[in-house]
Amino acid sequence: MAIMTNPTSSWADGPLLAFDLETTGTDTGTDRIVTGTLISIVPGREPQVRTWLADPGVEIPAEAAEVHGISTDHAREHGRPAAEVAAEIAEALTDTWHPTRPLCVFNAPFDLSLLDSELRRHHGRKLEVTGPVVDPRCLDKRFDRYRKGKRTLGALCEHYRVRLDSAHDATADALACARLAWRLAKTHPDEIGTRALAALHEDQTGWHRDQQHDFAGFLDRQADRATDTAEADGLRARAADVRARAEHWPLALVAEPA
């Protein structure tokens, strides 16, 4: 990844990419893409938006459809085969994502890992990380560590007074993520805004690891206080899984996709 030569410049003022997926659920190894958006943002130009609607090849659970508004019937009638959609998204990323153009993704280990699983499921290949990632969720947890409340996209947009047009619409979420990245860069210019992109990417790798280990420690403490043996064992098993996944960012460590 390239290093910025102008110490006063900010990557947030240059070209950005923003990415978001809506899916059948929250398991990166077994759930599938329903919709996707990739937005190219260049100062002084209208954002270029690419969107995809997939037929995931499985039933979309009612609770997921309630969140993003896409039913199984709608996806089957209007969506394209999941294999085509996954390949096109990966190709679009390869064409536009490079060392001097960051990809803004909220909770990157989820979206990028799920796309990686889809590529391995349908094409037997992995997602290539070809540039730096900027994850506002990771950044917020680093620089406002002790703030109470949720760390969802909607909660962060409200906290930082960033516009979110329609939650759980992939295009609206991607735009809001880019706005959050810009706001965080301006709020923390030395640590984020003027940080070389390669260094910021590596910073987030370490911050994510620390955050996950802190969460695993919390789970262990909950297990120590549990009076039910099965509950305690479950908490400790979850803590071990969290620690194992902590070493992998922005792609999570997942089993072979089902």
From TrEMBL:
One of its GO terms (molecular function) is exonuclease activity. InterPro entries: Ribonucl_H, RNaseH-like_sf, RNaseH_sf. Signal peptide: none annotated. Residues 15-190 form the Exonuclease domain. Keywords: Exonuclease, Hydrolase, Nuclease. Pfam families: RNase_T (PF00929). This is 3'-5' exonuclease.
